Amino acid sequence: MTPAPAGASPRAGVRGRPFTGRRRAAGLAGAGCALVLVCFASLSIGSVPIAPGTAFDAVLAFDGSEEHIIVRDMRLSRTLVGLGVGAALGVAGGLMQAIARNPLAEPGILGVNAGAAFGIVSAVYLLGVVGPAGYVWFAFAGAAIAVLVVYLLGTTGGSTSSPVKLALAGVVVTMLLDAWTTLVLVFNQRTLDEVRFWLAGSLAGRDGVVLTHLAPLLLAGLVAALFAARQLNALSLGEQVASALGQRTARVRTMCGVVVVVLAGSAVAAAGPIGFVGLAVPHIARAISGPDYRWILAHGLLLGPLLLLGADIVGRVVARPAEIQVGIVTALAGAPFLIHLVRRGRLTSV
Amino acid sequence: MNSTSRLNTESLDLAYPGTDLIVSDLSLRVADGRITVLCGPNACGKSTLLRALARLLKPRRGAVRLDGQEIAALPTKEVATRLGLLPQSPSAPEGITVEDLVARGRFPHQRLLRQWGEEDENAVESALGMTHTQALRDRPVDELSGGQRQRVWIAMALAQETDILLLDEPTTYLDLAHRVDVLELLAELNESRSRTIVMVLHELNEACRYAHRIVAMREGRVEAEGPPSEVVTADLVRTVFDLDTVVIPDPVASTPLVIPEGGRLRRNTRGRPGGSGAGVDADRAARQASTER
Amino acid sequence: MRSDIAGGGPRSGRRPRWIPVRPARFPVSTRVRVRTLVLTIAASAAALVTMTWSLTLGSHELSPAEVARTLVGAPAEPGHAFIVNSVRLPRALTAALVGAALAVSGAVLQALVRNPLASPDVIGVNSGAGLVVVFTLVTALPAAVVPVGAFVGATVTAFVVYALTWRSGVSGTRLVLVGIGVNAVASALTTLLIVRYPVDRVSLAVWWQAGTLHGAEWADVTVLLVGAAVLLPVVLWFTRHAAVLQFGDDAARALGVRAEQARTALLVASAGFAALAVAAAGPIGFVALISPHIARMLAGPLTGGVLLFAAGIGACMLSAADLVARHAFPIALPVGVLTAAVGAPYFLFLLARTNRAR
């Protein structure tokens, strides 16, 4: 493998504030601490409040009490799914922005969410599949096939895959898949009633099955992404510079694309389409850590679950005893923050 | 040569929102019908000054005057009929053809009902003719070479038919032949149509060759202004660029030719024409002393 | 000497690409690009043919001659007048006008933002209208509120996006990013409504959100025509500004364009057209995104003529989609589902072709 520029990132940050190693490490440590706190909050907060100490015991010293059963059976798996999905979305978003060199790129652009929705709606409508555990592989397959089609369409005939063409192909395929989904939902009320909760994006009711199926994929994807980070720094200087630095850009793009599919496909299969995390987290990470993708992905790994679990907790609390789906909360909470960043001029180009 | 000046500034202070002054207390008279070249080191404020002359930047203090009126008080469109600007890197919409792009230079002359009169057509034709780009007229601008593209943009600015033309580094990214080509074109325009031209140039020798007047800037102030033969000396180059040079007459045009000394070369060779190493060292020592003071 | 120019060759016997229009008796002059003119006429003709065809189809089939007689006021049978004039004609006109409005809106926005992925959805028009309409539908407010609600929701959201973008000027990138944020909020609230209300009410909302021309009547046509009569002159006037704005703000100002003023006018007009469309037919995707693309690929960058060409394409596209949506299947589909099915393959074909050309 050819060497990527180790210190390719310019040291000057937005408005002249330098992104020193200390600042980045502090950001990472802060996010890590916050994440631990949020995990415990996620175990103890809900329709039945449970003391953090009891929640802690339930994980480490299970005694079969009702509270412990609630924590173990419902909240622990939910928290773990939130951790995995959040990390996957945060990292996949960062990868997408890097390979598309577009601040608006997120896995959804490649048709991941539309493909998963297509898979699930078809499965419910045609095969009568019921419940999130049954959805998993249909969602994953739908997402993967959608991305494959997008990729083939975006690159046919051309020698290189231009990011704009890829995005356009993604938009078109998304629209086609959405057309089918809408059609089914318009004419089949049973399917609508079954999948509308899934379509909102939720962590509720995801049990161990979801987790055991998807955990290996998620882990493999995250590890591969962190190894790819070095390559992304060169890629972010542009196709030509990256080639001149000895990078095989097409191969890097393809590899990262596969990782994105694995991560985002697993995330959507586990929790439904949660659109905003993949877009906002890399921008927030970049605002904290500067343009070095190694740091952006590391921050994304922690900030993604932080945002997702935080939003999940809020969704459990605000409408008690009912819940608001986490996909709705992430959008409502994340969007104003994104707008704030935009207005402050903090969204530096990719 | 005490020429008239339609475009001039009066104790101008310039800055971008939220920054310190970039240009301070600058007064300049742009000689009519002449080529004026702004030069100086990077970030000396020459492009900022050009933007202010074109009414793109509002002065913090002082005024830019065009035909005696304060330019900030004139309507945008009226300014655009008297004064044209070619920015450093304008962007062409994807797929636009050369003729189309040049025709858009007619914007300030077009009215709601009169959008394509004969004068518009003639202006575009003559702009294409002057820049020798007629043959390219149906080609998409994206497909042209750098030199061709620059000619086309100049043609766009010419179609605007303004007496005064401002250009920000029109020769950047061009090779030697194309640079000469563009500069010859501008000189020809100036000569045959007596257009007033103000441009920012980086290459000092090209500036000396083509400018009637040079404005040398440093840190937002004018260090010297006048004909190249009077103004451009080794002393001036040292003040403005912080560089030791030898200035000899250009063997072709006998305008000043500025040749950098360069430390490495001076160590290796002795007795070059036009100055001695010891003298330069003394100068450098003196300069250091003056900056320490 | 100038080797780079020699490649073009002499240009004798050139077919004129532009026709200058300068009537001797009026102080009017303009020029028309031959290619754009031909294309616009072709697109309009195609739209007209599609509309006429759609007038013949339905539960009671008519021949084109019968339709023509009815339109000029001499129906072969008295029943034809009702079928054509009161049922089919308003729907056909609404389809064409909505398609044209979407295309104009998209064309202006894409030129303004200089991003080929931009469509009115970006400035929140569809999501804002969707939120208000889904609310009226799930809470069972009277049906007459729906188009008004859609228009209000669309314009208010677009205004919010614009206001949040403004910081001593509006930059295209900032507009897109703010639009994404505002869209996310509106869609999230809509999803919240969809999840929390009973499924039979939600079903109606999903139907509307698919985009449909079902129940279009003369009132819709009137509103669209009045709106277009107000907005189209604004757009055509500022199209020249948009053409120069694409050079970048410095170059545009140097040419005498007041950049912020022109941008604001164009944004308002674009949002207005999209709001008209969404009020009449719900959020119909694809037309606003694809029509300007096709126009640009065939006729070049935005000018007044290209804008009208795009409008013709939009009208044609939506008319055809509605025709297919109503008659090609055992049950009538929402047209929004069909626009994707009609537009996407063609767009993919164009995409593949440009890929090959490179």
UniProtKB/TrEMBL annotation, chain A:
Q: Where in the cell is it found?
A: Cell membrane
Is the keyword Transmembrane assigned to this protein? yes
Q: Which residues cross the membrane?
A: 25-45, 80-100, 107-128, 134-154, 166-188, 208-229, 258-281, 293-314, 326-343
- Membrane topology summary: Multi-pass membrane protein
Which GO terms label this protein's molecular function in UniProt? transmembrane transporter activity
**Xref: InterPro entries:** ABC_BtuC-like, ABC_transptr_permease_BtuC
Keyword Amino-acid biosynthesis applies? no
| SUPFAM superfamilies linked | ABC transporter involved in vitamin B12 uptake, BtuC
Give the keywords, sorted. Answer: Cell membrane, Membrane, Transmembrane, Transmembrane helix, Transport
Annotated GO CC locations: plasma membrane
Q: Which GO terms describe its biological process?
A: siderophore-iron import into cell
Identify its protein family. Answer: Belongs to the binding-protein-dependent transport system permease family. FecCD subfamily.
Protein name as annotated = Iron ABC transporter permease
Source species: Halostreptopolyspora alba
TrEMBL record, chain B:
Sorted alphabetically, which PANTHER family does this protein's record hold?
A: IRON(3+)-HYDROXAMATE IMPORT ATP-BINDING PROTEIN FHUC
Q: Name one Pfam family in it.
A: ABC_tran
From the Swiss-Prot or TrEMBL record, state where the protein is found: Cell membrane
**Where is this chain compositionally biased, Basic and acidic residues type?**
281-293
GO CC terms, sorted: plasma membrane
| Gene3D superfamilies xrefs | P-loop containing nucleotide triphosphate hydrolases
Any one Gene Ontology biological process term?
iron ion transport
**Which InterPro entries did the record assign?**
AAA+_ATPase (IPR003593), ABC_transporter-like_ATP-bd (IPR003439), ABC_transporter-like_CS (IPR017871), P-loop_NTPase (IPR027417), Siderophore_ABC-ATPase (IPR051535)
Keyword NAD part of the UniProt annotation: no
Annotated organism of origin: Halostreptopolyspora alba
* UniProt membrane topology term: Peripheral membrane protein
Which keywords has UniProt assigned to this entry? ATP-binding, Cell membrane, Ion transport, Iron, Iron transport, Membrane, Nucleotide-binding, Transport
Source lineage: Bacteria, Bacillati, Actinomycetota, Actinomycetes, Streptosporangiales
Q: What is this protein called?
A: ABC transporter ATP-binding protein
Where do the ABC transporter domain residues begin and end? 7-244
| Chain residue ranges for the region called Disordered | 259-293
Q: Which domain of life is it from?
A: Bacteria
GO function terms (MF aspect) = ATP binding; ATP hydrolysis activity
Automatic annotation (TrEMBL), chain C:
Give a yes or no for keyword Transmembrane helix in this entry. Answer: yes
Q: Name one GO cellular component term.
A: plasma membrane
- Protein name according to UniProt: Iron ABC transporter permease
**Where does the UniProt annotation locate this protein?**
Cell membrane
* Family under the similarity heading: Belongs to the binding-protein-dependent transport system permease family. FecCD subfamily.
The record's section on Pfam families has:
FecCD
- In what way does this protein cross or attach to the membrane? Multi-pass membrane protein
Give the residue spans that cross the bilayer. 34-55, 92-113, 120-138, 144-164, 176-198, 218-238, 265-290, 302-324, 331-352
GO aspect biological process, one term: siderophore-iron import into cell
| One Gene Ontology term of the molecular function aspect | transmembrane transporter activity
Which of UniProt's keywords are assigned here?
Answer: Cell membrane, Membrane, Transmembrane, Transmembrane helix, Transport
InterPro entries, alphabetized: ABC_BtuC-like, ABC_transptr_permease_BtuC
